[in-house]
Design goal:
299 residues, alpha/beta, Rossmann fold, N-(1-d-carboxylethyl)-l-norvaline Dehydrogenase, domain 2, 2 domains, eight-stranded mixed sheet, 13 helices, 8 strands, 51% helix, binds 3-hydroxybutanoyl-coenzyme A
């Protein structure tokens, strides 16, 4: 029956590789929803910082879920934390994994190196997924011997708040792997959409050119940054304006995405990088995380 199939395939042990913004968020939500989670990064210092960020975010989530029941909120936080282990050794951390979600730097060679190692270390049943924003899932999977058990699981920042999960199927992703990823997405409390392995999937393919176009408008001086943001919030109902959102995502991240696409598709005018963003990056103004981007932030 369907239920016994799903019980057999259910993903229980999840290993997340990468303790940055996205990896921490994915690990947190997996722990919150009852999975046994191992979060991996290269240094204990990074992982300590990840744990601190997760603790802050868990408190915000608990406040929302258990408004009038602080004791239950406390239990939720402690239970979630107890399901979350950290490890600096990726190979040992995938030994019992049903699913590995990779959320490391957006560099194909570095991802290849990681997945070659993981492919050797993980059991054959383990499903591999990448949270890449801009690289091809098939291109990443190509160095493994499990391209049928490989797909994309693309989350959005902040992971504990954003309800969407893009589930990406390559030509090689098996039906069983796809179904297991969809079920896991639901178990994570997310709404899943299915997409093909195309640049930016759905959200970023639309969002990245939109932000770049808004920045071009600002560069031409058609309106101030503040007024462009106000316009899209109050005139189009977006929770953040495009320049605010660019600061929030981080200029290094979005610039990397658009530059990669520009190199691959030089004739597409939607994928032309912004000069003002290059300047911000040179000045170390990467957005909210460094305290300044188009706007200034309190650290
Ligand atoms: N952890 C837990 N809870 C959080 C949180 C976090 N990191 N960040 C915000 N929250 C909670 C707050 O506690 C608050 O809860 P409440 O409703 O109980 O008060 C709620 O979310 C709203 O937060 P705020 O009141 O601080 O501020 P906003 O109402 O402006 O919401 C936002 C913040 C959810 C970030 C909203 O502005 C938003 O949706 N912005 C757009 C984000 C977006 O577009 N993300 C996608 C970026 S693209 C991407 O990620 C893809 C990548 O590949 C580049």
């Amino acid at each position: 029956s369907f239920s016994s199939t799903s019980a057999r395939n259910a993903i229980k042990n999840v290993t997340v590789i990468g303790g940055g913004l996205m990896g921490s968020g994915i690990a947190q939500v997996a722990a919150q929803t009852g999975h046994n989670v191992t979060l991996v990064d290269v240094s204990s210092d990074i992982l300590k910082k990840s744990q601190e960020n997760i603790a802050v975010s868990l408190t915000r989530v608990a406040k929302k879920l258990y408004k009038d029941k602080p004791a239950d909120g406390e239990k939720f936080i402690n239970d979630s934390k107890s399901r979350l282990k950290i490890d600096t050794d990726a190979s040992s951390a995938v030994k019992d994994a049903d699913l590995v979600v990779e959320a490391i730097v957006e560099n194909l060679e570095i991802k290849h190196k990681l997945f070659r190692t993981l492919d050797e270390a993980a059991p054959s049943k383990t499903i591999f997924a990448s949270n890449t924003s801009s690289l091809g899932i098939g291109d990443i999977a190509s160095v493994t011997k499990r391209t049928d058990r490989f797909g994309g699981l693309h989350f959005f920042n902040p992971v504990p708040v954003m309800k969407l999960l893009e589930v990406v199927r390559t030509h090689d992703t098996s039906e069983e792997t796809y179904q297991a990823m969809m079920e896991w997405g639901k178990a994570m409390g997310k709404v899943c959409i299915t997409c093909k392995d195309t640049p930016g999937f759905v959200v970023n393919r639309l969002l990245v050119p939109y932000i770049a176009e808004a920045i071009r408008m600002y560069e031409r001086g058609d309106a101030s940054a503040r007024d462009i943001d106000t316009a899209m919030k109050l005139g189009a109902g977006y929770p953040m304006g495009p320049l605010e959102l660019a600061d929030y995502v981080g200029h290094d991240t979005s610039h990397f995405i658009i530059e990669g696409w520009h190199k691959k598709f030089p004739d597409n005018p939607l994928f032309v990088p912004n000069e003002s963003v290059k300047k911000l990056i040179q000045e170390g103004k990467l957005g909210v995380k460094t305290g300044e981007g188009f706007y200034k932030y309190k650290k």
